[in-house]
Amino acid sequence: MPAGQPFTRLCQQLAHLQAESSRADLHLHTCHSDGVWTPEEVVERARRRGLGTIAITDHDTCSGVAAAQAAAQSSFPALEVVAGVEITCRHLGRELHLLGYFVRLDNPDLNASLAQMREQRLQRFHEMVARLPAIGAEVDQQAVAQRAGSGRALGRHDVAALLVQAGKARTISEAITRYMRDGGPVVTPKQGIPVAEAIALIHSAGGACSWAHPPSDVSCESLMALREMGLDALEVEYPTFKKPMTQRLREMATAAGLAISGGSDCHGPTPATRAIGTRAISRPELEHLRRIAKS
């Protein structure tokens, strides 16, 4: 049958769905931190994409995981939702983000530490809001109170949303670029926890940990140092990484004896380059991470 005929198109669609179902997007955010969508909406979009596995990795909180797992179980049991988290860390004077996968949601040490970090985020949020009058932004105090009392892991996106409401920017992205960039007039530094402490927390919760979106100047020496601390994996599949960067990171991970992780780092509908499933890892790479967590 010629290409383009109904049966041919059906076969192509089935092949595409089968390929997608073997992929895992292990870096997704929900409205429990700085994402736009609810956990249920993230699950629905992952279902539409045909992914086999996703990980909910909100900043400094696991509060969205249970809802995502329940949504998948009720509407699309074939979709696995991995319990994850993205922890804000400090390392050698720089900010470093650590992804935890397959963590136990009832682990008291992890939960206590994450709760403390969310309290620090709340304090930072109020500090940044206090700087807004200096740039001529009159913010809605009711909106401030609503965000402060939401229980979410607050960040610069929340302050950027207030700037949009105040008419200082048209979009959150514009507000972040103009006012919320590192060293800008509004942002105060994050505190974070030492990376070695975060690695220990993830391991104590039965999880595997990965260095999220490593910088372009990552070196073999820095990778090996983190490996000695217990790092399990390196995020090599990431939306902003070009093919040469991805290949270099894969080679470095292999040399350091680290597993491979990756994902879209999707926060919502924009940008399209970070849509759910745009970057992911293979089934064998996922199973490698699972074995590490189980061990």
Strand % is 15-25%
Rg calc? 20 Å
- What does the largest sheet look like? 9 strands, mixed
Q: Indicate the structural class.
A: alpha/beta
Average pLDDT, rounded to a whole number, is 93
The total beta strand count reads 9
The helicity comes to 40-55%
Number of helices: 11
Shape: globular
Q: Give the helices and strands as they follow along the chain.
A: HEHEHEEHHHHEHEHEHEEH
List low-pLDDT spans.
Answer: none
Kindly report how far apart the N and C termini lie.
50 Å
Task: Describe it.
This protein is α/β, with parallel strands linked by helices. It has eleven helices and nine strands. Strands 1, 2, 3, 4, 5, 6, 7, 8 and 9 form a nine-stranded mixed beta sheet that branches. Helix 2 (39-49) packs across helix 3. The longest helix has 24 residues, at 108-131. The mean pLDDT is 93.
Please tag this protein with its features.
alpha/beta; 295 residues; 46% helix; 9-stranded mixed beta sheet; 9 strands
What's this entry about, in short?
With 295 residues, the chain is of the alpha/beta class. It is 46% helix and 16% strand. Strands 1, 2, 3, 4, 5, 6, 7, 8 and 9 form a nine-stranded mixed sheet that branches.
Question: In terms of topology, how is this protein built?
Answer:
Blueprint: H1 6-21, E1 23-28, H2 39-49, E2 53-56, H3 65-75, E3 80-91, E4 94-101, H4 108-131, H5 141-148, H6 156-165, H7 172-180, E5 193-194, H8 195-204, E6 208-211, H9 220-229, E7 233-237, H10 243-256, E8 259-262, E9 281-282, H11 283-294
Parallel strand pairs: 1-2, 2-3, 3-5, 6-7, 7-8
Antiparallel strand pairs: 1-9, 3-4, 4-6
